[in-house]
Amino acid sequence: MKQAVLTILCLLMSVYIQVADITTISNAFKGGKAANLTAVMDQEVDIAVPGASKKGNPKEATTILNSFFEKNKPTGFSVVHHADKKENGFFVGKLPTNGGEFRVNVTYRVDGDNMLIQSIRIE
Questions:
Q1: 10 Å Cβ neighbour count for 103?
Q2: Which of 75, 85, 102, 107 is paired with 2 by a 20 to 30 Å CA distance?
């Protein structure tokens, strides 16, 4: 009986646990559209791409990403790992481009119904 109650409790809890929807971010990487990420960036973003690294506002981060996408045209994007913990989360993805394949790490925080990117690292 205890095991049945515990199982039901776990099932109910899993219904209430939500993973952040990263579709907007994933699609922006897939299409090489840095401007689509500006609206989901936090006030300060730590960004690192090959040849550039900066902690700045969303406009500065978008400029760096645009420069990266101009040199490395994406041909797809796939999420390898995605995890959330309370108000924070991260995901790791593969970004194939005309200049080779890159690993993308994105961390974010959840503020109400909004997800705000805190860091982007492309290596």
A1: 12
A2: 85
* 100-111/88-97 β-pairing: antiparallel
pTM score of the predicted model: 0.82
**Across 37-59, average pLDDT:** 96
Please determine, for residue 17, whether its predicted confidence score (pLDDT) is greater than 60.
no
| Whether 88 contacts 104, CB under 8 Å | no
30: tokens are 């897939």
Token duo for residue 2: 């205890």
Which pLDDT score, from 0 to 100, does residue 85 have?
A: 86
Annotate the chain with DSSP letters as a single string: -HHHHHHHHHHHHHHH------HHHHHHHHHT-THHHHTTEEEEEEEEETTEEEEE-HHHHHHHHHHHHHHS-B---EEEEEEEETTEEEEEEEEEETTEEEEEEEEEEEETTEEEEEEEEE-
